[in-house]
Design a protein that fits this description.
541 residues; alpha+beta; 6-stranded antiparallel sheet; 17 helices; globular
Length: 541
């Protein structure tokens, strides 16, 4: 959900994560290559290893260049078999997975059972330092390849076994009935042998098995992806390719779209929402997405993790006038949050409207009283850290601070603390340098209530950036994962969510719609439930 700035590309930039193999490559509005569309984008935080990408911009690319065992339906989000011929289990703990025949990577290598097993072992290994290693935590042997302390004592997960070219088995360390539905997430993508035999070369030009292949990447400028004609899947690219152009300002991207210099903006800035219908008409998209915006806290800082802190956090939640902010700034593209998931899950999937209760109601008097009871704001002032490379974040952070300041009767109680770029922002979070609350938007990896809770709040989970830890929450999540009855599992997850609420582990702000605008060159443009353009279905005239 970040946008970026138009730049003039005079020469190839030096890159560290992915090497550029060419300088331009382009496509898009303003006389671009026929059949190729241009879209706004932001540089990924990390190299594009599937198990090392847990942010949106890198995820967009992985969605184009990889296909896994499952794929999430672009309209419903439902997990459907992709490379999986079948996934069998009799006990929700031992799985036999059969891989479809006829699939290859874009370099011609066959996709086999080993392609998955080797990739998962790489992703889980402590020495490879992959951000999504945690997703392999339910596979038997994870504690040996990725111990909480010390060195790993095994090189491979004991729960993974290759039976033959098309078959492998997975043994989990406990029952996990929803395990098959998680396998559409990019961390579980297969990897070719070239990833292991020439790792540096693969990082310079990643090779996958999806409908697109990366042609070139110049960090800070653009990435060029071309349709892979040999792609064997049914969801072939309906265009010649996609040029992802890096912008560090969403308003500039929008201006380029209106000027005909860009084909697609997948995050219309809040500052332009008042104009977008007049500017684009029916070429403006505003659809519900599995995204929630929250304020997270640095529990590694004792000032935010002491007796009474829960009252301070709850008071801050009640000091935020969500409805006024979403109505004024976001104009029907955000809805005040009343739980920690997303309405796109539906009630059967775990969304429970109102679960937050009064803690998410605007009540300035009660907010002030709770903050005082909890010992007041640490250091006497709240600094909300956010990445400043999109105007939308500055606008809503300022509005949240104004709301808190009004509730407390102190115009200096809350201030914004901008960080220049998304990459710098994420790096500071990863290095545990947050001194106060920080922006923590979450875009679902797969449409399960488990994904809105476990990666964010489970002890030492992959995206638990604030390092919150609660034994009651962890126990309930483990129980929910082991439950084979879906309704009972959802109910148990909601009990875990109540623990999040009672401790105000993070402040839920609002649910986010996906918003996009596109040029007259394009047709069949849509956003999936993850708020990502369905690039392969877009047609270019």
């Amino acid at each position: 959900m970040r946008s970026a700035t138009h730049a003039r590309w005079a020469a190839c930039a030096v890159v560290t994560a992915l090497a550029a193999t060419a300088c331009g490559g382009g496509g898009g509005g303003g006389g671009g290559e026929s059949g190729v569309l241009s879209s706004s984008w932001g540089d990924p935080q990390n190299p594009l290893e599937p198990a090392n990408t847990n942010e949106v911009q890198g995820g967009k690319v992985l969605d184009m260049i990889f296909r896994g065992l499952k794929k999430y339906d672009p309209k419903t989000g439902k997990a459907q078999d992709m490379l999986a011929q079948k996934i069998d289990t009799s006990d929700s703990q031992n799985y036999t997975i059969t891989v479809k025949d006829g699939w290859t990577f874009s370099n011609g290598e066959k996709v086999t059972a080993r392609s998955f097993v080797d990739a998962w072992n790489y992703g889980a290994s402590l020495k490879n330092n992959q951000k999504n290693a945690y997703f392999f935590g339910y596979i038997e042997g994870y504690d040996k390849v990725h111990p909480e302390t010390g060195s790993q004592s095994a090189e491979a997960l004991s729960g993974l076994k290759v039976v033959d070219d098309k078959t492998f088995t997975v043994k989990l360390n406990q029952k996990f009935s929803s395990f098959p539905d998680t396998l559409g997430y990019a961390a579980f993508a297969p990897l070719p042998r070239s990833f292991f035999t020439d790792h540096a070369g693969w990082l310079a030009q990643p090779v996958g098995d999806g409908p697109y292949a990366i042609e070139s990447y110049t960090k800070g400028s653009q990435m060029s992806l071309k349709k892979w004609d040999g792609y064997p899947g049914a969801d072939k690219a309906q265009n010649g390719g996609v040029t992802l152009k890096v912008y560090t300002d969403s308003d500039t991207a929008y201006t380029d779209l209106i000027a005909g210099n860009l084909d697609l903006v997948d995050d219309v800035p809040a500052s332009q929402l008042k104009n977008v219908k007049n500017d684009l008409g029916d070429r403006y998209i505003n659809t519900p997405a599995g995204i929630i915006q929250t304020l997270a806290f640095p529990y590694y800082d004792s000032a935010w993790n002491k007796s009474g802190s829960d009252k301070v956090r709850t008071g801050l939640s009640m000091a935020i006038n969500r409805k006024q902010i979403t109505d004024t700034i976001f104009r029907n593209t955000r809805t005040p949050a009343t739980d920690w998931t997303s309405p796109v899950l539906g009630t059967a999937g775990g969304f429970k409207e109102g679960l937050c209760g009064s803690a998410c109601d605007y009540d300035p008097d009660q907010a002030k009283a709770l903050i005082q009871e909890g010992g007041g704001l640490p250091g006497g002032q709240l600094k909300i850290t956010y990445n400043a490379d999109t105007g939308s974040h500055r606008m809503w952070v300022d509005a949240v601070c104004n709301s808190i300041n009004n509730a407390l009767g102190n115009d200096k109680a809350c201030v914004g603390n901008p960080v220049g770029t998304f990459a710098d922002f994420r790096n500071q979070i990863g290095q545990h340098k947050m001194a106060g609350p920080f922006r923590a938007g979450w875009q679902m990896d797969y449409p399960l209530i488990q994904n809105f809770l476990q990666p964010l709040y489970y002890t030492n989970a992959s995206s638990n950036d604030g390092k919150w830890s609660n034994k009651d929450f962890d126990t309930l999540v483990d129980q929910a994962n082991a439950e084979t009855d879906t309704a009972k599992a959802v109910s148990t997850f909601q009990k875990a969510e109540e623990v999040v609420r009672d401790n105000m582990a993070a402040i839920p702000l609002w649910y986010q719609n996906g918003s996009a605008g596109y040029s007259e060159r394009l047709s069949n443009v849509a956003l999936n439930p993850f708020s990502v353009p369905v690039y392969n279905e877009i047609k270019v005239s």
